[in-house]
Design a protein that fits this description.
Low-confidence stretches: none
Strand order of the largest sheet: 2-1-3-4-14-13
Distance between the termini: 21 Å
Number of strands: 14
Strand content: 25-35%
Order of helices and strands: EHEEHHEHEEEEEEEEEEH
Radius of gyration: 16 Å
Number of domains: 1
CATH class: Alpha Beta
Largest sheet: 6 strands, mixed
Structural class: alpha/beta
CATH architecture: 3-Layer(aba) Sandwich
Number of helices: 5
CATH topology: Rossmann fold
Bound molecules: glutamine
């Protein structure tokens, strides 16, 4: 057994947990256990202190507009630590509502605008006439992914340098026009994929490699 547990921060686990996204964390725990690593998962909820650099992986799951509104203000306390963590190449996965809030803003179904963390230059707007729901199938640098999406927010990149996670074969992904899914920046992955996405073991293995590499460095520091 490896001595030091892999530490996972689960942002607002009690509020942002739509469509079984907690399965992503469970799959990583299972795969890490098979490699003899113990894991510790901390729920970082409203009012909790949080330093991303104490963790090997940060997970931020999906949530409905209501939950996103509930956490929006509290989340801003973590802007600096998450910005430094993501920009210095540490592993994080944001799904749907959690992905949306890494960008500049999300304009919700009620017309209110939730301020995002403004870490990466993209924004999301609610469109009532076209809820994007159904199975998705897309290609990524790690191979094909099959998942499920359910969102009204349409995400648009505001900088042409941003790279998507994948190219759509079936389904919508970020929005109905661009034919791309999610975002991949350094070791941050944002995605609309529930299912959970990490049932696609190619993506789970890629994230595991990121986690183990950062875990080694974190302990050496
Ligand atoms: N509330 C967001 C939307 O509808 C995210 C939904 C989700 O996380 N599944 O776009």
């Amino acid at each position: 057994m490896n001595n030091e547990a892999i530490k996972i921060a689960y942002l607002y686990e009690d509020l942002m947990n739509t469509y079984g996204d907690s399965g992503d964390v469970k799959i990583l725990q299972f795969l890490l256990k098979k490699q003899d690593y113990q894991t510790q998962v901390d729920n970082i909820s409203l009012g909790d202190p949080f330093d991303a650099f104490n963790y090997d992986f940060v997970f931020f799951g999906g949530g409905q507009d209501f939950e996103q509104t509930v956490i929006a203000q509290d989340l801003q306390r973590h802007q600096k630590t998450l910005e430094r963590y993501i920009n210095s190449g540490h592993p994080m996965l944001g799904i749907c509502g959690g992905y949306q809030l890494i960008g500049t803003y999300y304009k919700t179904s009620s017309g209110t605008t939730i301020k995002g963390l403004d870490i990466l230059p993209f924004h999301t707007v609610f469109k009532a006439d076209n809820r994007m729901i159904g199975d998705t199938y897309y290609t990524t640098q790690w191979g094909d992914v099959r998942a499920f999406e359910n969102h009204s927010g349409q995400t648009y990149f505001d900088d042409s340098q941003l790279q998507p996670l994948g190219k759509m074969i079936t389904g919508y992904g970020n929005n109905p026009q661009d034919g791309v899914e999610g975002l991949h920046y350094r070791n941050f992955i944002g995605s609309y994929s529930h299912g959970p996405i990490l049932k696609n073991l190619n993506i789970a293995q890629a994230i595991m490699q990121m986690i183990l590499s950062w875990h080694g460095k974190r302990l050496a520091d």
